[in-house]
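Re: the 1962-residue chain
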Amino acid sequence: MGNSNAGQLQTTRFEEVLHNSIEASLRSNIVIPRPVFSQLYLETERPLTNDGRTENDDEDDEDGSESNSPTIPYQMKPTPEGCCTTDGFCQEGRDLRLSSLSADSLDVPPGFVLVGVKSSSLPETLLVCAVDHRFLPDEQGHNALLGFSGNCMGCGEKGFRYFTEFSQHINLKLSTQPKKQKHLKYHLYRNNQGVLVKGAPICWRGHDGQMRRTSSTLKESHVTSEEQTQNLAAHVQGVCTVESRVDPAAPHVQTKLPQSLTNGNHTAPAVTQPPLHQSGPGRATVPGIHVNAGPPKKRHKGWSPETAANSQSESTLKMPPGSSSSGVIPSGGINGTRSDCAALPKPSQSLTTPPPPLGLSVTVPDQLLHTCRLQPVIFKGHGPLPPLTGNVSEVLVSTLLQSCYLSSQALPRVYQHYGPSPIQPLSTEMQILLTVYYLVQLGPEQVPLIEDLERIFMRSWRESHLSEIRQYQQPQAATPGRHYIIETSSSLPGLPQNLYLPNLSQQPLTPSQLPWLAQLAASSCGEAVVVLGEQVRSLAQGLQQTLDQLMEGQLQNTKYVVIIVVLGQETQSCVVVTGKRQCRALAESMLSPSESLREVNQQLTTGGAQELIHHCNSLGQDGHMDSILDSATVDGGETSPQLTGQEPSEDRGLKSTSNSPKERAPSPKDTCSEYSVEWCEVRPIQLAVARKLLSHVCAIADSSTQNLDLGSFDRVSFLILVPPSEVTFQQTLLHLRSSGVLQDFGGLDQKCRSPQKAEHYVVKVDQAAQVRIDSFIQEAQSNTYTLYILVHDHAHWDIRSASYSSSDPGLGLVDQLLNSRQVTDAQNILILHVTSFPFALQTQHTRISPYNEIHWPSAFSNDVDLYHEKTRYFGVSELLESTRSGSSLPLMRHDSSFESMTSALEERFPKLHSAVIRTTVLIQHYCVALMAASCRIGSCHNLHKHTSVETLEIVQSLITAPQQCPAGHGHMVLLRIPSLALAAWAHRKLSRVRRQLGLEESFEIILGNPNKALSIGQSFIKQIKMWLQIQDSDWVPHTYLELEALPCILILSGAEPLGESLPRSLKYCDLRVISCSYLQRTTLEQELGLAAYLVRHESRLPHNPGPGSDLLESDAEKLSSTDNEEEEGQENDDSPLSSQQLQVCPEGGAVETISVQNITSPKVQRGHAELVQTPPILYTQPPAQNQTHPQVPSHSQTQPVSKLQSQSQTQTQPTPQVSSQTFIPSSAQNTNSQPETGQSHRQPSKSASSGSLSPRSCSPHPNCSWVRGVSRPPSVLLPRALYDIITASDSSGLPQCTSFLPHMSVAWASSFRPLLTKMMTCTEQSLYYRQWSVPRSFHMDSNNLTGGRSDNFHPRRLLLSGPPQVGKTGAYLHFLGILSRMLIRLMEVDIYDEEDINWSEQSEAVQYQLSNAPWPSPDIMRTMPYDYTVHDPKYDDISAVYCPGYRPDSEGSAVRQEDVYLRRRTTRIKLSKYAAHNTYHHCEQCHQYLGFNPRYQMYSESSLHPFTFTHLLLGEEIQLYFIIPKSKEHYFSFSQSGGQLEGMRLPLSSDWSPDCIKSPIFTPTTGRHEHGLFNLYHAMDGASHLHILVVKEYEMAVYKKYWPNHVMLVLPTVFNAAGIGAAHFLIKELSYHNLELERSRRLEGGGPVGEVWPFIILTDDSCVMFNAVDLDTHNGPSEHAVSLKQVLQHLEACPDLVQFGLCGIRKWSSSGAKGQRENKQWVPFSRGHLHDFLLLNVDRSQNIQYDQNRFTCHDVDFSLRLHSAGLLVCRFNNFSVMKKQIAIGGYRTFIIKTKVTDVPTSVGPSQYVCAPDSKHLFLASPAQLLLEKYLQHTSHKLFPFSCRNYIRPVLSVDCYLNLGPEVTVCFVSSRPHSVNISTTGMLFSGLLLCFTDSFVTANFLKKFTFLKGATLCVISADRSSLRQTVSRLELEEEWRFRLSDEFQTANAKEDRPLFFLTGKHI
C-alpha cells in the first residue's frame, strides 16, 4: 500500500502482527481485548549504514540508487490502451504540473492536503495531488498511517488506495517499486497572492533533516549540550569497544534522544519486525538499546510497529503501594509520605537487600539544615541503605527510586512462556546509568519525576527485548554494529535532542564499567551531578562523604550526588538530592495534603512565620508598609483605622470613586439594563444528557437480569450527597428550588410542597449525614413501590475506604453510606455518581459497569452542534491554546516577578513551608498594589517595584470597574489559598489594608471557608438585593453565584475545591499559591477547572482550527477540573455585546496616579451559566471591520511598563492573525481618559494584551465592566513550576499532565502500560484506566474483589461525567424530573373516554328497579324494553339498528359523520393496583404467575394436548390444541390410560370460594403478544382462576414465548385468516361441548348433572381496569377502582343468573358515573347490546351461535339474535370496564392486499366486488371481509331510499350487517316464536337476505311492505345457491332483476368468492 517492499514486507508484517496479537491475547488473562490494527503504523527509526548515513538516505537523491537495501525489481503494468502517457499528465490527459495548476481553484476534500509529487522525468516541477493527511507524517515525522489514500487533481478521480496504482495513474514511469516516502516530497500552500507554491518538505524522517554522524570522535571543547552529549557518546562507545573486545572498526551505536523523556507516546524505536505482543494504543518513549535482528528494510518515521508493546498482558501485575509502578504519587516529583518504604515488592536478585554490616553507619552532622539551608533527600537504590545516626531529623529518606527499580525489573508474565528465552529484565547497571543520564538532562530548576524515569526504563528494556524476541523468532545472523536512531518526545524541557547510549544488549554493561561510565556521563553537566564511584568502598562511606561536603560548602552547585558501589558482582547505589529547590520540593511532596496543611498551621501558630511577615512588610528604602498605611490614613483625613468600616464617612474612599455603593441611591437612572441573572434555564444539551441518563436506566430495566423493575414503581424520590461545603450545599439547594423538580414531586410528596423543605433532599457528607442516610434506607425499605435515586455529586472527593483507619474522621463516609449492604442490595435504590474526574472510579475493581457510564457530549466530535447550543465550552484546552499563540498575552500564564521573589525567600527561610512563603509574598503584593491604586499614597513612594505587574493590573481593574457602571457592577478576583489558616490571615491582612485605605465600600473581601456560610457586608447585601430585585428583608446570599457582578476578592480556601460554582463576573483566577507537589491528574484539573466558562458562538473569532486538542477536552471529562455546576446566566439574544460589537467610549472616570499601563488578559467572549464543553481549540468568527487588533509582543509580561505603553499607543494598523485566537478589547480601566487632578493627564491607551479600541457603541452602558467582562473568559495565574508541567506536551500535542497518576487513591497496575493517546474517546479512556489502574488499600473499591468472575459491577450504579461547570447539576435534576414523569407515564394508560352515542332525549325515563338493587330480577327485566340502538362509541360508523321509540338527532348524525375519521378520544388514567398488565410488567409478585422466574420455570413447562369435537355447522371434526402448563393442569381432566385431554373441569353452581372464580376466562387475541393485557394477577387480587388465551396457529410460538405460564387454545389452521367471529364461535361451541362432557362425567360418577356451572367469560385483550359505582356520595354517583375478582364474584353471586343468557358491564367514560343522562335516576340494570366483556350462559344459548364468518359487528349480530330467541340480556351498570388504547394488533386490523404482491395496496372499496367471470384484479383477502367492507362503504348507493332516512330502514332478516352510518337496519328473525319489533305500517327501503336458511320463506317476506324502487340484496355462497334462493323465495314476483346486477367478491375461484344479487322492488 505504497510502502517499499510492499509485496512482501507489508503482508508479512500484517500476518505477523495479527498472529502474535491473537497469540498474546490467548495467553493473557486480560479481559479487555487489545487492538490489532492500531499497530499497523509506520515506524520512526531506520538503521544506519557503515558510513553513518541512514539506510535509504538516497531518497532525497533523484535516482534513488544509493540505498544499501537490495533493490526489488519492479515492472510497471502496461498503460491501458487509449490512455495518455505524457509526463506531467494523468492517464486521462489532464495536466498535473504545479506550474499549470498554481492559479486554478482546486477542490480539496475535507481531511486531504495538497502534496507535490516528485517525478524523475520532470525534475523542474512538481505534480499536484491530494493526499489524506492521516497517511502523511506531521512536522516531526510522526503519526503516519501505513498505506495511501489520494485523489487525482487533474481528472478528479478519487479513492486511490494504493500508491502503486496512483503512480501509474499520474504516469511516474518508475523502474523501482513506487513508494510514497520517495515521491511525496513537499507540502503545497497558497501564498498571499493566492498562487499555489511549494512549501515545506514532508518530514518522513521525524525531523527536518537527517541525523548523520559527522565524525567518530569529538573534541572536549564543545560547549553546547548537544555537542557535550555527542562527545560523551563517542567516549562511551570507545570504552565499550575496548572492554568488550569488539572490532574497533565496527560502527558505533547511536541512540538519539530529543529534549524530553516524557509523554512520548507517538514515537518508538526502529524495528523491522513487530514485537511478540502489542496491545496498547500508545506507549512511553524512553531511551533504550536495540539490535538489528534481521536484514535491513526500508522503514519510515512515524509510529513504531511496537507502539503497543507496553500494553503487555500485565493487567494482573499488582505492584505494592510503595512502588512507582503502583504510583505512590508517581508523577508528583516523588510525591508520597515519609513512610513510603512500606510494602515494597519482593526484590529481584539484583535488588536483594541483606542486613547492613555492623559498624557501617552514617552520622548526620548537627546543624545540617542551619548550615546548608536545605534538608537533603536520600533515595534508596540498589542494596541496603546504611543506618543513619545523629541528627537524622534533618535528612529525608525515600524508597520511590527503589520501587521504580523493582517495577522495571518485573518481567511481564507473557514472556515466561518462551522457556529458555534470552529476554531478561533491565540490568542493575543499566538502571543506574540511565538514572545518571536522566539527572544530567534535568534543568537547574526542574524536579525529578519518577514517572519520567520509569518511562526511560521501559523504553530501554523494550528496545532490548524486542530485538531478542526477533532473534528468537527468526534465528538469523544479525549484522553486528547496526545503529538505530531512537526518537522520544520533546515534552520534558532541558533535554538535548541527541543522547547516545551504548548498545549494551549485545555486550552487557559490566559492574566494573559502570562507575566511570556514570562519571563520564555526569561530566557533561559540570558540577550539577556528581558521581561517587571508584573513590568510595561502601554506601556508608559515600553518604558520609556527601554529608561532610555539604557541611563544608563544597556542593553548593551540585543538585544530585549519585553513589555507586561495586562489591564483586553486586552493585549498590543511592542518590542524594542536594539542590535547594529540589530538596524543598521533594520534601514537601513526601507529605500528604493533610500533613502539609497541619505543618502550615503549626508554623503559623508557633510564630515561625513572623520573621517572614516582618521581612515582607519592609519595603526597603521606601519605608515600612504599616507606616505608609498609617500616613495614608492620616493624610487623607480618614477616620481612625480602628473603626470597623461598616459605616464610613461620606468622604471616605477614593477621590474618584464618586459612585461607591454607599453613595449611590437606588434610583432608576442608576441601573444597568444589560444585567441579568439566569440560574435555572435548562439548555438543550442538558436535556439530551438527561435523556441519556433515562435511556440507561431503561436499559437496565429492559435487560434480562431483572435488576430494576420500573414497572413496579409508582413514584420517585431522591437524595443528593454533596461534599461538606456549606456553599456547595446551598448552591445545590438553589439549583434544586429553581429547577422545578420539587414542583414535579410536589403532587406526590408532601415534603416537596414547601421550598423550605428542599433541605430534606440534599445532605452534606459529614458526620451528621449518617442519621439522614439511615432514615433514607429505612424509608426505602418500607416503600418498596418507590424508586429512590441516590445522587453522589462530586463523586471523586471522598473515595477512601471506611475500614481504613484515618486520622480524618470526615473521610470514608461515602464508602460507609453508599457501599453498605442495605443500599447495594435494595432493589429500589439507584446510585448515580456525578463527577468531572471519573478516573479514580475507573479501576480494575470498579463497581460501575462501562455500559453504565454516561459521558457529556463531546464538542471535539461536534456532537454539541446537534443540540443547537448558543455557547461553547471554554476550558483548559483553550487556556493551553492561548499559551501557544505568540501574538497575544495568554490567558493562562505565570508571574516571573512573583516567582523570583518567592525563590529568594525560600532560600532565606528554608524551614518554612513554601505555601507560607508564597502566600505571604502574594498578599504583600496585593497590599502594595492596593496602596498604589488607591490614590492615597504619595508619589514619593515607589510602590510599583514592590509588586508585580500582574497583581497591579488585577487590583486596578477591581477598583476602577465599579466606577464605570451606574449600578456599580464589577467583577470577582479569586485567590486560591488551600490552607484555612493562611486564608484567614490573608483575609485579615487585606481587610485591614482596605480599611486603612478607605476602600471598604469599593469592593468586598470574602473568606471562602467550606465549613462556614458566606459573610458579606450589609452595604453589599443591599446592593445585591437591589440588583436581583429581592424584597425579602432577611435575605442574604448563600452561594458565590449570588455574588454576580459584585466587585470582590474571594479567598477560596480548603485542601481542594468542593464543587463551588463561581459567578460569570469572575475575571481573574489567581492560583499562584496552589501546591506544585501533588501532581495527580484529578488534583491539577480541578484547580484549573475553576476558570471554565462558556463562550457564545457569535463571539468566536476566526482562526485555523486544528485537530482536536489533546486528551483534555476532546471528550467529556478531558482535563476538566471541578464538579462545579454553573447553572446561571444563560446568555440571551440581547445579552451583552459580542466581541465584534464591543466598543469603548472615553469618559471621565477615576484618577490614576500611577503612570503604569495595565496589562490585561486576552479576552474572548464568555458566558457562564451552565457550561458546555468546547472543541479543543476555540473557534472564532471574523472581527468587525471597524475593529483593529494590534500586534502584541509575545514577551510583553516581562517588558518595561513604559515600553508596553508606548507600543500599545503607537500600534494602530490591523495585525495579521498569527495566533489561533484573536482577542478583543480588555477591561474598562484601560479605556477611560483620565481627568487632570494634579497628575498628568492620560490619553486613552490600548492594553498590550487586548488590542485597539473601537468607536463608541450604541449599547446603553458600554462602559459597564460586567457587561463586557461577562462574555470573556478569566485570566489564570499559575506557579511557574506548575505552568511548565501543564504546558509541556509531547510531539502530538498531548499535555504531559494527562499521563500522571489519575488520583492519589489509585496505583498503576503495571509499568508496562501504554500512554493515553491523543484521539482517545471518553469510552476508550475509561477502558484504559479500568485496565491499567488498581485501587490502593485505602480506596473504597479495594475490597470489591471479583471472586473469580470477570467483573463485580453493581447493576444499579451509573456514572455521569463531564467537564467542570458544564451543567451536570441541571442535567441530573432534569433527569430526576423526567424519570418521575416517566414512571407516572408508565403507571398511566390511555383509556377510551367516550360518551355513549345515539341517546334520544325523547325517550322517557321509567324506573323499573331501585337504584341500589344489587342484582337484577328476571321478571322485572322481561318487562323492560330491549334497546336495539347501539350506544358503544367504537361503533359510531356502523348502521343504526331501528328501534321504535328512538328518534335520531340529525345534526348529531352529521357531526358524527365528520368525526368518523378522527382519532378516538382518550384520557390518561393512572393504573390502580387492580389493573391488568402486559408483558412489560414483571414485579416480584407476578414472577410465579408469569413463569419467568427461574424458581418457577419448573411449573411453567407446558405440554401440547390435542382436543377433537364435532360440530354440525363445520361439517367435520374440529381438532384443537391446548397448551397447558403443569401449574394449570389441575383445571383439566385427562384420561387415566394415556393421559389424553378429556376436557376442562367445571365447578358446580353451588360451589363458592372467596378466592376462586368459577367461570373460565377466554381472551381471543392476535398480534398483541407483547401488548395484550393478559397478566390478570393484580386484577384478580390473587384469586384462583382459569385464563385461556385463544390464539391463531401461526402465532402460537410467540405467544408461548411471552406467556409461558398461560393456558392457550390454538385455533385450527383454517381459522388463520378468520376474524373475531370465528374465535367466539369456536369458544362458545367448545365450551358447550365441554359442558356436556362434564355433565356426562358427573353422571357417570353419580353426581348432579344440572348443577354444573354453565358460564364462561369472553373478554377483550385491552380491558385494563374495572370500576364500581358508589351511590352514597352527596355529589351523585361516583366510581372507584375495584378488582376483576370483585366484579366476577358479584356477577356469579346473582341468585337468578342461570335465567340470563348473556350478561355484561358498562364501558367506562368520565361522565358516565353521574347518571346515564343528567335528567334520569341511576339505572342499575338495562337490556341492550353488550360488548368487550361478556358473561355467557353457554347452556341457555346453545342454539344461538356466533357467525364464524364475521369480521365486524359480530357482537351486535349475536346480541340481536340472542334477544330475538327470547333470552334475557342484562347489563350491570354498577360496574364499568376501562379499555386501554392499544395501537398494535387486534381483530379490527384488516389489510386488503392483492394476489399479485404481498404488500398492502390502495384498493378502493368499489374494487372489492366485480362482475362474475370478468377479468378483474383479484384480492388476497377473505371473501366475507371484502363483502362486509364493500357494504359498509357503498350501501348508501345500494340502498338510496334509506340514506339518512331512519323511518325507512333496510329490512335485514336473521342477521345484522353494517351498511354504513347513513343507512338504518331493521333486524327481524325468521325463527318461530322469535321476539321481533312490530313492523305494522312500516315501509322498508330495502331488503337484505344473507345466507338464508329454511326458516325464511316467501310467505314470511310477504308480511313486510317495501317502497316502490326499494333495493333487494341477496347474498349466497355460490351462484347456484343464489339462484335457488331467488326461486325458493319467489322473489321475481315482486322484485326486478337484471343480468348486470349480479356480483361477486374480488376473489379468485380457489378462494371461494361470495356472490350477491341486487334488484328493485316493482
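The longest helix spans residues 1620-1644.
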